């Protein structure tokens, strides 16, 4: 029996050590409390009728304050200093934390956890300890309810995700008075503190609860945050504690802020916050859905036309002009409809398709009647230039501070767009084939985004958002670039190179562009009029032909004559 007991204990110990970040196993809820250890994550489940009491014992004497934080995926939990829930002593949400300032000789702390959700809520929590030299996150809070608020408050819409947090204060010893927040601005006050904002992307298409809680462990403590996440910006005490990011629908993102004291070379982490920029509980358009049906239909048809243009666009010149005119007119009309009218998304998409079709027909008709090649190629070059300019600002270049000014951004964007047709004005056929291959293959990328997440769709979507939303200029446009994106990027490159190569080889020795259609039709008509040997010369006029067709149709509905003897008329 003794050997069997040792084996069971060994198995339990090995299972506990395999949990990421030193996470502990789920506690026994029947006892009514959960016991925690400093720096150890713990998974547990909260139920509405059964609140829990969290206890931390054996706190070291060199610890001056604690941050206890709790995380869930999308159901709210409440964390409080007391059993009575008060606004200034509790917090409710998905990612919440409380700062506990320790008294002299104090070695134990308690918190109270509960949920009002009808369903059980899976959580992960951790207490973190800091010394008197470490800055206190949220120690100079004047905006939110808590006296000391280490939380990051997150808001999102279709365009941007904004995080806000309270300024930190300098650390101090147990039993001492906190340093004043707004008395002076010198190096002896909180104004010397700096704030590093970090961003961490979850794996693409991962909406699981276990995945979020596991990755949240890499964003709670300072060393793990610096090693795992990407630092986006550093704020000083003079800057507003507010940062905006481009919203990524259905993509899990975790944000955290590390406050640093450059004088003492110490730091502390706020409570991380996460978002998917969508709702898990919405009936329509929730995180689990893969997009609207109208979007899938629109971009699937658009991709089929784009794929045809990628390989055969230069040969079928009028079809390519329709494709370019559709893009040109549809893009501007969608912006106007969205900014000037409150119509729903599906109606906007239908109107965009209708007006885009009219724009494509108009460009084809303009070429047929007037045959102005430079005008048509200017439209083709502008579309290619728009895509290349969008790719340029999709890179880290787009997050440079100077481009946060809308005037600088749009002037630079327009110059890059115009530069492409100017460069290739001497070789229009090459410009046209490049446009067919690159733009046509990118239409396939947009269609793929309707069925599975890919960051490459934000190449053009970020430009569209900036044109639609007045405040999008302040958002950082970082996106994840993971395995799916590398595969789709390879597909895009393969399609573009294949289409360009095929069209260049096929068009060797052929005229650069087809002749003017209207002139050709006019010459053909004059030739038929003057050449009596041409069979088309003896074709009756259109009016007589239509009258003859109508006569034949009428005869189909006339009754047959009764059978009998018929005598031919002899002349």
TrEMBL record:
This protein's GO CC annotations: plasma membrane
The TM7S3/TM198-like domain is annotated at 300-504
- Tell me yes or no: is Transcription regulation among this UniProt entry's keywords: no
Keyword Transmembrane appears in the UniProt entry:
yes
Keywords noted in UniProt: Membrane, Signal, Transmembrane, Transmembrane helix
So which residues are the signal peptide here? 1-25
Protein name (Swiss-Prot/TrEMBL) = Transmembrane 7 superfamily member 3
């Amino acid at each position: 029996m003794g050997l069997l007991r040792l084996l069971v204990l060994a198995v339990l110990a090995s299972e506990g050590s395999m949990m990421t970040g030193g996470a502990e196993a789920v506690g026994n809820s029947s006892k009514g409390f959960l016991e925690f250890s400093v720096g150890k994550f713990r998974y547990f489940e909260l139920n509405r009728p059964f609140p829990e009491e969290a206890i931390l014992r054996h706190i070291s004497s060199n610890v001056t304050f604690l941050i206890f934080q709790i995380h869930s995926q999308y159901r709210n939990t409440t964390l409080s200093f007391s059993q009575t829930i008060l606004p200034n002593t509790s917090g409710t949400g998905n990612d919440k934390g409380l700062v506990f300032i320790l008294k002299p000789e104090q070695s134990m702390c308690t918190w109270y956890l509960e949920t009002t959700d009808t369903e059980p809520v899976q959580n992960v929590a951790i207490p973190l300890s800091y010394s008197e030299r470490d800055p206190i996150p949220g120690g100079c809070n004047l905006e939110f309810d808590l006296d000391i608020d280490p939380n990051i408050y997150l808001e999102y819409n279709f365009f941007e995700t904004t995080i806000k947090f309270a300024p930190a204060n300098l650390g101090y010893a147990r039993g001492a008075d906190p340093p004043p927040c707004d008395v002076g601005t010198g190096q002896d006050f909180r104004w010397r503190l700096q704030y590093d904002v970090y961003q961490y992307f979850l794996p693409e298409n991962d909406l699981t609860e276990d995945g979020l809680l596991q990755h949240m462990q890499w964003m709670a403590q300072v060393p793990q945050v610096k090693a795992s996440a990407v630092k986006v910006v550093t704020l000083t005490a003079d800057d507003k504690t507010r940062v905006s990011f481009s919203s990524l629908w259905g993509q899990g993102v975790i944000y955290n802020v590390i406050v640093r004291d450059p004088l003492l070379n110490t730091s502390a982490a706020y409570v991380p916050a996460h978002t998917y920029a969508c709702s898990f509980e919405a009936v329509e358009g929730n995180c689990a859905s893969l997009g609207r049906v109208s979007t899938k239909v629109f971009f699937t048809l658009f991709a089929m036309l784009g794929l045809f243009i990628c390989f055969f666009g230069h040969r079928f010149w009028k079809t390519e002009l329709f494709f370019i005119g559709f893009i040109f007119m549809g893009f501007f009309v969608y912006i106007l409809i969205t900014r000037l009218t409150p119509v729903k998304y599906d109606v906007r998409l239908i109107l965009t398709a209708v007006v885009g079709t009219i724009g494509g027909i108009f460009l084809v008709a303009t070429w047929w009647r007037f045959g102005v090649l430079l005008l048509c190629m200017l439209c083709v070059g502008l579309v290619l230039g728009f895509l290349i300019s969008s790719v340029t600002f999709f890179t880290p270049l787009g997050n440079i501070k100077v481009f946060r000014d809308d005037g600088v951004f749009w002037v630079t964007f327009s110059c890059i767009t115009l530069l492409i047709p100017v460069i290739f004005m001497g070789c229009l056929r090459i410009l046209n084939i490049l446009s067919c291959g690159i733009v046509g293959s990118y239409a396939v990328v947009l269609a793929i985004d309707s069925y599975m997440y890919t960051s490459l769709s934000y190449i053009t979507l970020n430009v569209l958002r900036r044109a639609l939303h007045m405040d999008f200029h302040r958002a950082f446009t970082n996106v994840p670039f993971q395995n799916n994106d590398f595969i789709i990027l390879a597909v895009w490159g393969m399609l573009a190179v294949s289409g360009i190569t095929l069209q260049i080889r096929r068009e060797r020795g052929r005229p650069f562009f087809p002749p003017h259609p209207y002139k050709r039709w006019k010459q053909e008509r004059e030739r038929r009029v003057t050449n009596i040997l041409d069979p088309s010369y003896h074709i009756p006029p259109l009016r007589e032909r239509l009258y003859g067709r109508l006569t034949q149709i009428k005869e189909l509905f006339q009754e047959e004559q009764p059978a009998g003897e018929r005598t031919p008329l002899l002349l």
